[in-house]
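User: For documentation purposes, I need each entry recorded in a consistent format: the amino acid sequence on its own, followed directly by the corresponding structure tokens. There are two entries in this batch. Please keep commentary to a minimum and don't merge the entries.

Assistant: Recorded as requested. Entry 1:
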Amino acid sequence: MAQHPWVPDQGDGTYLNPIVHADYSDPDVIRVGSDFYMTASSFGHLPGLPILHSRDLVNWRLINHAVSRMPLAGYDVPQHGGGVWAPSLRYHAGKYWIYYGDPDLGILMTTADDPAGAWAPLHLVKPGKGLIDVCPLWDDDGRAYLIHAYAHSRSGIKHKLNVCEMSADGRTLLDEGRIVYDGTDKHPTLEGPKFYKRDGYYYIFAPAGGVATGWQTVFRSASVWGPYEDRIVLHQGETEVNGPHQGGWVELASGESWFVHFQDKGPYGRVVHLQPMSWDEDGWPVMGERRAGEAIGEPVLRWRKPDVGEACAVEVPATSDEFDAPKLGLQWQWQANPDVRWYSLSARPGFIRLHAVPRAGEGGGLYRSPNLLMQKFPAPAFAAECLVDATGLKGGDSGGLIVFGYRYSCLAVRRGSANAGDADHAEDDADRALTLYLAAGDKAGEAELWSLPLTGTEGIRLRVEVSADASCVYSYSLHDGASYAAIPAEAFQASEGHWVGAKLGLFASGSGGGQVEFDWFRVSARVDGQN
């Protein structure tokens, strides 16, 4: 198997940040025994609410999703920027709990006895627009609380954190809550709170100052209702890690403390970092590494691994897929609730068959199409390729490789002319030759940039190479993959999407009723050795 393009475990007792160079936005982490679990925002991509597992906080594996289908109205079509915002993950009373805010609906919750197993149907804890970034706290006296921030775009409220009392079963809020901190003057764009209790004090870990430019703040009070003292504990400083943002604190069995957070890297999304953490003599957290004479920590690039008392195998979230299993790999997500009519893994064993689905939205582009099968960018620089059998394409249908964000590009195979996918042309074009083409688009539509007539239908290899500046160069092989021909077009600059990083994957589109099959999809380090 090809070398993975980003491995944080350096094999010498140290690790490299980010520990996950992929768009696991707004991470939260817990320890249960010797196991660590992490979840993250998934917005409108499904399955959603990813569950990752680790034994050492450095080597992570994707093991599940808490939401296989979104049961809420509207998710049969893409909900760019909506859906699951900033979840929190907790272990309480023998169960795993996830709370999150849907900015258009309210606060939702799900539970599981086993994080790798089935999660309960989503439960609406509190309806309301703009209630986001939620986190529960079960106190020592049996009472329970929930903290949340506000989405200004829906609520008109900004910079403020609200605490509500919650029923002990975690299903209902008992009051409207109180604003426990207003960051308007000191900590603008205050959001993403995580709620903890330690040594009799209530702690709120919350970022402020903006996703790409801000800092990590900690608030402390002897009362859950405040007043809260504040202290900035982590900022960019002189490092390249901009806006070290929201995440979670976890304490090890060895007594060590660590902080997991994200960094916004534009088209690469919000990648996950791990910071060493300790507590000073006054009971305040110390994060990252402090420069001489400085009171605020800065993110570390390379550090010793956490002391978990064992050597752990090197793991990274899955990327490549041979399509030999009866189910899709967990790395894949659709743009909306999946439909079994879009694909098959059993019709031709060892292949995934994607059925052509008519394009949605204005301009004939793919931006609003729900049936794009995609995964996260996995590294700063990498290559991704697939082996395509286009035999089953019918007139006007197409399918291939796609890089997707606010802007997207695709290298694909089409049967017939570019406008042959409608009912008036499909039959006339059914026997026409294949064309390999490169196109680029956005929500307004799509334009073809290059094309090449083809004579064969099987063994077409499509490849995209992504450089460390997120520029993408496409190439193809019509033979055995021994040599690739570059597409004579300018490099495509990958773009982030709505609150998410760029994605890459596969698609099939058109109304001809055809299909395209992929033998495999492989992600590797850049073939030219670029990192």
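Entry 2:
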Amino acid sequence: MPDNRFTRTIVLPNDLIPEIPIGKLYGCILAMLLAVGICLSSKAQGQVADSLLTLLKSNPAHDTMRVKLLVNIANSVVWNDAAEAMVYADQALEISRELGWQRGIASSLRQKGVTFYYMSDYLRALDVFQEALVAGETLPEKNLVPSIYNNMASIYAELEQYDKALEYYEAFLKSARETGQKAFEVIALTNIGVLYNDLDQPGKGIDYLDKSLVLAREANLANFVSAILNNLAIAYEAKNDFAEAIGFYHQAVEAAKEAGNKNAQASALNGISKLQLKQNDSAGAEANSLEALKLAREVNSLERQSDVWKTLSNVYELKGAGNRALDAYKRHISLRDSVLSQEKKTEITRKEMQFQMNKNQAVAEVELKRERLIRNVSVLGGMMLLLGSVLAYWMYKKRRDTLAMQQEADFKAKVAETELKVLLSQMNPHFIFNSLNSISDYISKHDTEKANHYLLKFSSLMRMTLESSERKEISLEEDLKLIETYLQIESMRLNHKFTYEIKIDPAIDVSNTLIPPLILQPFIENSIWHGISKKAGNGKISLEIKRDGDFIVYSVEDDGIGRQNAAKENKLHEHSMGTKISQNRISIINKLKGAEGDIRMIDKPEGLRVEVKLPLELVF
């Protein structure tokens, strides 16, 4: 997916000053009615907030006017301070419930949902939008419920539940056409077009975006035109129609200038620069990228700056300016990691919430069964003498079922907890710290070639690790590539203190064999850190993979100092943690697949041999 893609937007209300649209419309804050088509700057948005606060102070009564002011203040500050926006939205909701004003309740809940979205708390945003939908379904207003459908669709799209997102977008489009609201129709068509681009169906995306562009121009919605043009450029670029793509990028630049949207302008300029690179026009690409960087800095968009620095790195590489290319790439990595760390934090939070939800639901089901059992026993207490034997059997069966459910609940919790621990453990902070220090050391020694080589290896490993963490199984070929990259980086960091070899049984098709990602990484890491790195001389690590009937057997062998000497140095804590996580993963695989996988550790006179046995899983 292109780095400069546009995302989704929501609809705006008619009777209140509109809530900020969900999606990255490049900092364009819509604080006027949508029909006016005015896009305010951050400074103007602050002036709106100040004016609203002045009105709020002059209206202390808990009435509908104060609710409207609170919702609109929350809307005006949400881009800069989501926590402050939530305070105003909560106050609006509290007063609306005091008054019993259903419209205020629905609008306040909708604003809370928008605020949760900007806090990257998608699950809570979805919960609040669903509550707003229930509150708004009984209202006569024609725009509130459709706007909530659109907001929910945008969150489903963020969570990559595209079928659900398309269902809600189409419901929104149908409502917009039935009520004749052209602005809503523009938003619905644009969002559906972006969704098809996300699904790698640019042809369908172009159809919807073309219709959206025509309507936006007819309705004089200048604030949307640059976004639609940019998405059209991206879609044509995906179809390798570069002539059409660059034409739409230029139109997007002009439209963004007219709307005063610097972020949109920076994105379009960066898109032009990338196409110029494909045509070997380094001078034009550099000029456009530098202009894009200037605009991105003016609006303080870290994500856009990261994209532009990556393009500049490619520009300088094409021009043969190696040092400038490396410097630009390091800036890209630094800014990208700032964005990725927040995304990873959000993903971990989401997994933690899902884990708690699964665990609480499972425990609640068990508790409900237990309460029903007690109630049934009480009702049948008077019949104990007559039906003693029947009741005894029934209680035994019920207890057995309850225990089985409890075991199932514990297993689900163990699966969720193990997945979370694997995700958190795959990015070892000590390894990252040491690698970054090594890169810094090469740079300080002006060894640009080695620094660049190390950096490329390190960034490749980080990318592969993040991608594999989202999947339960990957091909053996992918996993071996990841492991070999890790071994190469560690070998470089330790000044080639060890060598390694990988032997694969000819009976194994590495591209057709599926394994859990990074199942061997903890053992290889232990061999390096606790075995060979403590050894006086150089060492060797041997990785062997062979087939044993319906199982695949891995062995990791080193000639390091061994477990007993490592224990004397109190260095086995990390080893035991990594081994415990791997044992839990294999235990889960055994239960799910009815297999008998295991881990064996064999002490040698010098070093350690670890054997991991897993059920053989093939793609076809």
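Summary note for entry 2:
The chain has 22 helices and eight strands.
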